[in-house]
């Protein structure tokens, strides 16, 4: 699906409260109505790869929130001084710098998680969500709404990641965040962990079902393709 | 039949508009049309209605599956007593198998139909009869030792993800029963492959015979095809495997019924066989002479007898919904199923059940095949018309 077209530049107003109605909407829309994964169908690859367990999914979500929020902020601050012809390169440099920061922090303080996420932290650079938001929003909006938009999209992405990871970890290994949730007596009765949940296709199934539920429940999304 | 008619007439008002159980009308309608052809008449246009509606088509398929089912029950008992080295009468074998297989069928129907009824009541459409066949196909593709809750999970997955999510019977692009099996195969590999094919419930005062091995012929095939059972054994099905898959003979009876009644497509069945034979013999030609035990040396016709090739070809590949629809497309569709099956069997020992995977893959490709066939047809007609005009 194409990235949504850039909204019209915000009309300059004297004083807009920090959490005006529009800003709240910028923050809230990507959580459900315009979710980057289930509605815009971006960033699927990492949603398949890092959602086997909840913990890496959470860390990954935090990393993406950080990157989308601050890259949006920085690009929005620079938006008048970036020549349009080289804007992609500038955007990439900003994103790459932020991703490197995330990667280094993870390596320094959470080495085991960093190993699990392996290449996928680095691949945030290529995550379509980040660049999509820069192109679609940050280049045309003021820093504060851009920052909120970045947080909103990061969280919208993170919600899906965590939901998928909860299902996959619960049914795939019977644990949540590493704690045993499915009791031993269930295993004694003959319950078995679902091996399919450990495989990437399971994430596709769960995202598919999520989209199904979301669209039959959210009236705004009906007939939006 | 009169008393049935009377009964339905008596309770019908309860389910119709304004009746006590109005919401349950789909359920009532499903049960009623189970017994009687629905009294629909056409309102405009052509006034011919074939009395072979979906429900009766499905029943024909079920009748065609009965030979494999009966044989499967007998074979379950036979393999069980063989493993303990006991000589039992055919009847005893059958009764043992009957009581082992029956719960699987009941659970499969209960779980799947439960989901269907739930959806039809929620969405207000009539219960579709598609599950009648899937509900029997699922048990036939299971090993007899499968835990019942897995069957239920598979049946729910089959109806929910395989069908309802796309809009119900006739909208699915993959064979739902096969999808259920693939789901269970990947979800619970320990229960769907390995030494699980014979029911080994203990017999008083008996121990397993020394030579007992829990391997199906496909596992044997992966190790060394020269140890395979004799072709006649594989043809009649005195071997281990899923409940319905072992006997090629029983599947052939089913194929006769399906082809005779026109419910199953003979083109698909024939082209599957041709595809497998072609690949099998091609590999025979190409097989490296320096490795006499390489799987490529397997005589081509063995592939027709091994594993579930016959079962998949007759009952799964011919599913009218998920197969190719054009006559020419059916040839390609079947041929690729057969050829792919042999390729996967020979070169990928990790997934011995190649029939399942290649049918599912070709299900995905069926619309493309149809599209290409139609396009090609249009092109050739255009060419012809241009020629005649010129």
Describe the structure.
The complex is a heterodimer of chains A (225) and B (390). With 225 residues, chain A is mainly alpha-helical. Chain A is built from ten helices and two strands. Chain A has helices at 21-28, 44-49, 54-78, 87-109, 111-117, 119-122, 128-136, 143-173, 184-188, 200-217, and strands spanning 175-176, 179-180. In chain A, a hairpin with a 2-residue loop joins strand 1 (175-176) and strand 2. The longest helix of chain A is centred in the C-terminal third of the chain and has 31 residues, at 143-173. Chain A is globular. The termini of chain A are close together. In chain A, 37% of the residues are buried. The model of chain A has no long low-confidence stretch (mean pLDDT 83). With 390 residues, chain B is an all-alpha fold. Among the domains of chain B are: 55-192; 249-373, no CATH class. In chain B, 63% of the residues lie in helices and 0% in strands. The longest helix of chain B has 36 residues, at 354-389. The interface between A and B is medium-sized, with 13 and 12 residues.
